[in-house]
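Batch manifest, entry 17 of 40.
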Amino acid sequence: MEYKQGTKRYQLHLFSDSLDDILEEENSVRVIDCYVENLDLRKLGFKIPELKTGTPPYRPELLLKIYMYGYLEKIRSSRKLEKECKRNTELMWLTEKLAPDFKTIADFRKNNKEGIKNVFKDFLYFCKQANLLSLEHVGIDGTKIRAQNSQNNVFKRQKIDKVQEAIEKKIQEYLAELEENDNTEDSELGLQEGEEVKKVVRKLTQLRKYQDKVAKVKEKFDQDEELKTYFATDSDSRFQSDKGKVRPGYNAQTGVDDKEKLIIVSEVTNKSNDLGQMTVMADMVQEIKEDLEIETETNVLMDAGYYNETEILNNKDKKGICIFVCDKKEAEEKNKKQRGTGNKDKVPAAGFEARDFIYDSERDICICPAGKELRKTHKNPGKEDSGREVFEFQCKECGTCADREKCTTNKRGRAIKISAHKETMESFKREMQTEASKKILSKRKEIVEHPFGTLKRNLGYTYFMQRGLEKVKAEFNFMCFTYNFKRVLNILGVTAFLAEIERQKKLNLATK
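Output type: structure tokens
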């Protein structure tokens, strides 16, 4: 019995396969090709190169196809994409055996940020016409994605002088080592020792470059007294806490439609939490609804991380949008129960926390658990850092109270802050506690988890390739477009997807 035999490499063929013969009919690459060829890239904002004498440029459609294929197949590096164009049969079919160099591929992405963003929005029109969107419920959530900035390239003002001293010390050590080698007779130097000298020289060169970099960072600190931390590789990135790890990165936000778990809006911020993102995301949802001409009211669902009184007051009565957000204090209490009873000696103790105080609206005072009265300290409300407007109430009878040690350590007496919009917020909280609202809020997690799981686990988008907030925004937009494209491909399949492209093409031509 013989093993299977392949075709001899030197064997000649009278007839060879065409490019189309090497690609099966149900290959998703055919969908990429068909979809891009039906886009009006000029209208979407892509820069179309002028045709001049000399070497002709590559079609922007071809470069977009390369990026779409790369992001779908977890190949985001322009150098790797150049390599794949020369050996990957699917890419060879897609590009008709053209292989742009890595710089051409990278420049296309760099020079077409707006066009790439608009591809994401244009695909949402396609999804609407394919009846894949409802916008009845939209889940909002954020996730942390690493930046192109290692911990070694993050500098702090209080440590920059020590870093410079450490570099200088190491440079002197290498110089001393080189001087010692120079004093050694040439006849005593072996090949191995000669190689060691070359290594020292290379390390010294690298250190001098790093020294110059640190010196420039030091200048940044000297020029800006308020600057405490400088991110040298990507200056727009900031420290983000994610699952116990703190690394330079960004906070990526998405709004996901309930019907088919498609991402309808995306945003990126370098803020480390979601507290100020409610208005931004709600406005984006309303904007895309207007663009898609969807008039039904949309329930926008958010977790406790978005709970901010000022944001809620600004958004709860927006036309076309109904805000649902988990109560922050309720979530904190739930976490406390899961972690255990906590510190029993803390002040205020259980029973004397702010929620245990009763506000008497008729008398405009607060009553503490021990029956003492807290009176307003100022007629006009003050503002907290979050923007919340509050009145402060203080007790003057704490000195004679038997429960003082459980209640406060403030020498002036216990003080609590009451929202200037207490009645409005209490009404909102009651609405969120109804069975109907809880049922709607329970949908949020299942809506938002699928896209982030696919983006990070399946597609491997755990870090950004680009640097700078605007470039990162464009890249995340393309990540979300890639997710949507892959999702629709899974829902429809190749044949139905191609048929839908043709159907919409004819429909659009008929309506012009």
